[in-house]
Amino acid sequence: MDTQDKPFLPAAVIFDMDGLMFDTENLTIPLWEIAGKPFGYNLTRDIVLRMVGISGEKAQQVLLEEFGADFPYDAIRDEFRILVSKEVEKKGVPKKPGLMYLLDRLQAAKIPLGVATSTRSPRAVSMLEKAGILEYFKALTCGEEVTNGKPAPDIFLLAAKKLGQPPASCVGFEDSTAGLMGLHAAGIRSVFIKDVLSPPEEVLATVWHRCNDLSEAAALFGL
């Protein structure tokens, strides 16, 4: 993080969910492989990583291109979701380091918060409730609400609209290449927190700030 910059107090802050607030990528990546085995498919980590941060429709395209048109996406996805639900029920929702610290600082500063996630509404609400943080957010914007998912800017522009603020006055937090590209296209300052993947340098060049974890990001706003 470049501490020489003056703190910028945003009119609103938009958070991605999976891989950013929750350590769900490390939790769920192995579950895709388990879900695929009964159907005779080997969904390796390298394949699953290509689906990080994108919509379900685009994830389906990745798998159809990898395995062919006969790939039973719906059946394997349903099995995957069952496995995820069991893991979350057993272990809880794994929150990323510094999440609660940052949310508390932003709430104390009375900055409205939103979520912009490729995940569909029922699962997003369930995860946020299980993590005990749903009440922090003024607005949720989920995958089914936009025609074009990340890296298109649509979901971020809708999130800013729901929060009642122009994109240029907002800050967005993301961990994925697709998310960072979407924020840049929307004209929203982006903060990158690394998860399982490092975006290409040309994408990182568009980032407003990079932080090691969410608690470190509070200093960007003078909090």
Question: Can you walk me through this structure?
Answer:
The chain is an alpha/beta fold and 223 residues long. The chain has helices at residues 24-36, 45-49, 56-67, 73-91, 99-108, 121-130, 154-163, 177-186, 201-204, 214-217, and strands at 12-15, 113-116, 139-141, 170-174, 189-193, 209-211. The chain has two domains: 12-22 and 94-221, HAD superfamily/HAD-like (Rossmann fold), CATH 3.40.50.1000; 25-91. The radius of gyration is 17 Å and the shape is globular. The model has no long low-confidence stretch (mean pLDDT 93).
Question: Using DSSP, what is the number of strands?
Answer: 6
User: What's the mean pLDDT score?
Assistant: 93
Output the radius of gyration.
17 Å
H/I helix tally: 10
CATH domain topology of the largest domain: Rossmann fold
Q: Give the amount of beta strand, in percent.
A: 5-15%
Apparent shape: globular
SSE string, helix = H, strand = E? EHHHHHEHEHEHEHEH
Derived structural class = alpha/beta
Count of discrete structural domains: 2
CATH superfamily of the largest domain: HAD superfamily/HAD-like
Indicate the CATH class of the largest domain: Alpha Beta
Helix percent reads 40-55%
Corresponding CATH architecture of the largest domain: 3-Layer(aba) Sandwich
Strand order of the largest sheet: 3-2-1-4-5-6
